[in-house]
Design goal:
heterodimer, A: alpha/beta, five-stranded parallel β-sheet, 14 strands, globular, B: 274 residues, alpha/beta, 9 helices, 30% strand
């Protein structure tokens, strides 16, 4: 789905881009150091669940950082972006000071730029393909920070520009779920002119962006603004609605829906199935984060409770584990620990999250694996037994396989444990569709190019297909599904 | 949507609500539950559906005041709306023609038992129902149960109505009297535990509808996990009904107490506000 090279070339050849390129010599661009994201001091931020850690760039900082970008003739960064943002174009608009145009460029292909600027693992995607990294062995242009800057600038300016949409074609399509995959699908389909309804099971739209990612990393107000943009483009939203249960797919077909995108996400949290794991005080990261983020359990005026711990162990090394352990610190933990069976090098979490967690005082117990939990007489967890691990040969994931070290067992006092070792696909939707082909893991099987399932008018993407992915990969799926469903519906007779 | 059409007090603490929700009224099946949220500060909590009228587009819920959320629900009057209501959730009861079904309901658990009794009766089974509560005031839906049962036995702990004794006494009497092919029990966890011990003794297949703590109710959080046959299962998507003889009721009772302190504190704060 990479952008058409002709379009890229044409855009790059525009007068303003050429002028900007000749204004500053490349060797001077290269002399500029990569910008540092201003951050709230660790001592302050650990006291506030709702204060964002990254504070965003000032305009001058952003323009200087944008000047580093050399506007390459072969912009490999774009290939690293799952939604194919025209990266040099938006960055050059920032350099020129036309920030709203930069924001509009982002929205050409990305329905949620303020979200992606905050939560994408840029170091593994666009930034890993930057000329600075590839050829100069220098830190890449801070593409993620700049994306966030442009999106925030637009939001704060009050002048939100709504992307153009094609004339309505009257064809109804639905998404099942309202997370990043579904929203990105919805954004593209509404641009093509479809009548899009987003169906969400929870009482809030946004999926993992709302229930999962904490305020200190992604404020809900940012998500709400992006949702409002989609609403203005014509996307309709229905909460408290489980497609397949509240109404059947056939009911919706009768109401005229011609296409469905299933982005119902990763339902079931995985546990390790070790002794004592069902004691009170041991919960999934989904539960912990949902209570705090979606239900506001950390504040007194909300009815939903959350258990607090003095010694909190979070099992896992992904972004969800980092979100959980940093939430525990903010809810008053004296000791907040990451327990991960591999080493830090294998951690799937974003580098920035690990850095932030360390600054905040999270203890990293890597190469450690839980074996068993102990509880007090009321059934509340009070301790755990672990062993230390060594790294063996690479396994199927390409990472070195952790192996228990004999005789290395030890015990740890814990009064709250958050298990963040991954999720399994949500069975709720597939179980309503006997004809839908699913893998043995329960993920929906799709044509990888088209994202089309075994039921031809049903497309799927995100965690329900991948089993566990990032926001941006889910969004890429949504875009691909939109493009291909559009073609499918246009070529289908009797529309 | 979700407007309260009727409200009836069965007792001080037990209320029947008829709620407008045409989609759920049409799609729900016996054994399904809904998740509710009352007000923007409310928590999400499950209630098993006690009946539905697809023509009128309503569902029936029966709620007992236990803590803050149930109090907030009961505080709603006819014409008010429930902020959020989603469903139907959970696997429906497996209804078939089995022969003789013994249905046992404890306290407010009698309400979700009613549509199951009705369905078993309509499927051509002989249905004997035991309804039990602490005292006469807490016995609910007796007439409705009589309509769909071949026989109804009422038990009260204090003997103020029906016969004195626990639900298990009524059940055992039937089991000793005639061949029972299947049991279904709904009620407080402790009641289901002892009912299950009883039917296990007589080797009668038994389904129990579990009332675990839930947050989302759609399989996402795992708060409702329960050990069934040595394996961890999620009440919301794998249940709520399970083979009672395989359920670890002691663990379930322990887990139901997981937020006792928080619930106590919240109830105190709520009652001070009133």
């Amino acid at each position: 789905m990479s952008l058409n090279p002709e379009y890229l070339k044409e855009e790059r050849n525009q007068m303003w881009r050429a002028e900007l390129r000749s204004k500053t010599k490349n060797k001077d661009r290269m002399l500029i150091d990569r910008v540092k994201m201003p951050e709230l001091a660790a001592a302050i931020r650990v006291k506030h669940q709702d204060r964002e850690v990254n504070m965003g760039l000032e305009q001058l900082q952003a323009q200087l950082e944008a000047t580093r970008c050399m506007d390459c003739s072969n912009p490999t960064c774009i290939e690293g972006c799952p939604v194919s943002i025209n990266i040099p174009k938006f960055i050059k608009y920032i350099e020129k000071g036309e920030i709203l145009m930069a924001a509009a460029t982002l929205k050409e292909t990305n329905a949620l730029p303020a979200v992606c600027g905050r939560v994408c693992p840029q170091e593994k995607q666009c930034e890993s393909r930057c000329f600075y990294v590839d050829k100069l062995d220098k830190p890449s242009v801070a593409i993620g920070h700049l994306e966030r800057f442009a999106a925030d600038f637009e939001r704060n300016s009050g002048a939100s520009n709504i992307p153009e949409t094609a004339a309505p074609n009257g064809i109804k399509v639905a998404t099942v779920g309202s997370g990043p995959a579904a929203l990105s699908f919805a954004g593209d389909m509404v641009k093509y002119g479809y009548d899009v309804t987003v169906f969400e099971a929870l009482h809030e739209i946004g999926g993992v962006l709302k229930y999962g990612i904490p305020e200190f990393r992604l404020p809900n107000s940012v998500v709400d603004f992006e949702l409002e943009n989609l609403r203005k483009m014509g996307v309709k939203f229905e909460t408290n609605y489980i497609v397949g249960r509240t109404s059947s797919f056939d009911d919706l077909r009768e109401e005229g829906y011609k296409g469905f995108f299933i982005g119902s996400g990763a339902g079931l949290p995985r546990f390790m199935e070790i002794p004592g794991e069902n004691y009170n005080g041991i919960l999934s990261s989904n539960e912990y984060l949902t209570r705090v983020n979606l239900m506001g359990a950390a504040t007194d005026d909300k009815d939903t409770p959350v258990l607090r711990g003095k010694n909190v162990a979070v099992i896992g090394g992904g972004n969800t584990a980092m979100d959980s352990v940093r939430t525990a610190l903010r809810l008053g933990a004296q000791r907040a620990m990451i327990i991960y069976r591999r080493s830090e090098a294998e951690m799937p979490a974003r580098v920035e999250e690990v850095k932030h967690a360390k600054e905040e005082g999270v203890e990293f117990m890597t190469l450690c694996n839980p074996l068993e939990y102990f509880a007090d007489e009321k059934g509340r967890v009070k301790g755990m037994r672990l062993n230390r691990m060594g790294l063996g040969e690479p396994d199927a994931s390409g990472r070195r396989r952790p192996m228990p070290i004999e005789g290395s067992e030890f015990e740890l006092d814990v009064d709250l444990v958050v298990v963040a070792v991954g999720v399994s696909p949500n069975p709720l939707v597939p179980s309503c569709l006997p004809d839908l082909k699913v893998s043995k893991w329960g993920t929906i099987i799709v044509d990888e190019e088209k994202m089309q399932s075994s039921i031809s008018e049903m497309f799927a993407g995100g965690d329900i297909v991948r089993g566990g992915a990032t926001v941006i990969l889910a969004m890429g799926d949504g875009r691909r599904a939109a493009e291909n469903m559009h073609q499918y519906l246009q070529n289908k007779p009797n529309n | 949507m979700n407007k309260i059409i009727e409200k009836e007090y069965f007792s001080d603490k037990v209320v029947r609500l008829v709620v407008e929700n045409p989609l759920i009224a049409k799609s729900r099946k016996p054994g399904n539950f809904v998740i509710l949220r009352i007000g923007e500060d409310g928590e999400r909590f499950p209630l098993t559906i006690a009946g539905a009228d697809p023509v009128k587009g309503t569902i029936t819920l029966v709620v007992q005041i236990m803590g803050v959320s149930s109090s907030k629900l009961v505080a709603l009057e006819v014409g008010d709306s429930i902020t959020d209501l989603v469903g139907p959730l959970g696997k429906p009861t497996h209804i078939g023609k089995i022969g003789t079904v013994l249905a046992a309901g404890g306290g407010v658990g009698v309400a979700p038992l009613l549509p199951i009794v009705e369905a078993f009766k309509k499927a051509g089974n002989r249905v004997i129902t035991v309804i039990a509560a602490r005292n006469k005031d807490l016995i609910i839906l007796e007439d409705e149960m009589r309509k769909w049962s071949d026989e109804v036995i009422v038990m009260t702990d204090d003997g103020s109505y029906g016969r004195q004794g626990l639900v298990t006494a009524g059940m055992e009497e039937i089991i000793k009297r005639e061949k029972v092919d299947e049991c279904i029990v709904i009620g407080p966890a402790i009641m289901m535990k002892f009912a299950s011990i009883l039917t296990k003794k007589y080797e009668i297949p038994t389904q129990a509808s579990l009332n675990s703590i839930m947050v989302d109710g759609t399989g996402m959080c795992g708060a409702c996990r329960v050990t069934v046959g040595g394996k961890t299962r999620f009440t919301c998507v794998d249940g709520p009904e399970f083979d009672a003889h395989q359920v670890d009721f002691d663990e379930m009772l322990m887990r139901l107490g997981g937020y006792v302190q928080e619930e106590k504190k919240a109830t105190e704060i709520y009652s001070q506000k009133l």
